What we know:
Layout: H1 5-20, E1 30-34, E2 39-43, E3 45-46, E4 60-64, E5 78-79, H2 84-93, E6 99-103, H3 106-113, H4 127-134, E7 139-140, H5 149-159, E8 164-167, E9 171-176, H6 179-201, H7 223-239
Parallel strand pairs: 7-8
Antiparallel strand pairs: 1-2, 1-6, 2-4, 3-5, 6-9, 8-9
Helix pairs in contact: 1-6, 1-7, 2-5, 3-6, 4-6
The protein binds zinc ion.
Amino acid sequence: MGELAPLRAEVAQACRVAAARGLVDGTLGHISARVDDEHLLIRCRSDSDTGVAFTRPDDIRLIRFDGSPGSTGELDGYEVPNELPIHVETLLAHPEHRAVAHLHPAAVVAADLAGIRIEPIYGAFDIPGARLARGGVPVYPRAVLIRTAELGKEMVAAMAGRPVVICRGHGITSAAATVPQAVLQAISLDQLACMSLRIRSAGGTCRPIDESDWTDLPNLGPAFTAEAAWRHELARLEWR
Length: 240
Ligand SMILES: [Zn+2]
């Protein structure tokens, strides 16, 4: 399936961006992209795997929603992640979900365990992040490995139609219409958590911004936000 090469490359890049941003450490965490109603591309593991930060396009394999190879040889030498149900159940839940990032950002996990709720504590500092927080960031309260369809459905139910969910004592799941957007949401969520932890460490209280400020926090459109932000993330990878 040669026509999938650009999407494989994009998912691999997204894995490297997530690792470069500290949203995953070592070998844990994976990103997927819907191909059609029965197939997805997902970051798999192999014997030569050196971690998410070093993901290669070849590590992104085509599989069916049931975990079997999407075409001949796709899983030769590769293993599907244990937490495949996170991706499958999230994709099945909403047709507009075309990409899923399951990551383990330490700051988000720490903030949740510290009892901090993610709220729009800032505005123009990161408008997409503020909007994400304003809509609510739900928490799936179980710290389990999500390796069955039943647990995947439970997590999706906790997600309650929002684009991101915090898995307590575990990580996050971010779903979006594009692979970059799934990772950008995760970066914004991580920044909200880092700022919340900083405010608490400085002895402050995390409070939502004034309701009247929202009229002057416009959606600046994807060209200004998502597209420019993704170009920046890719440039950072080169620079490192
Ligand atoms: Zn996980």
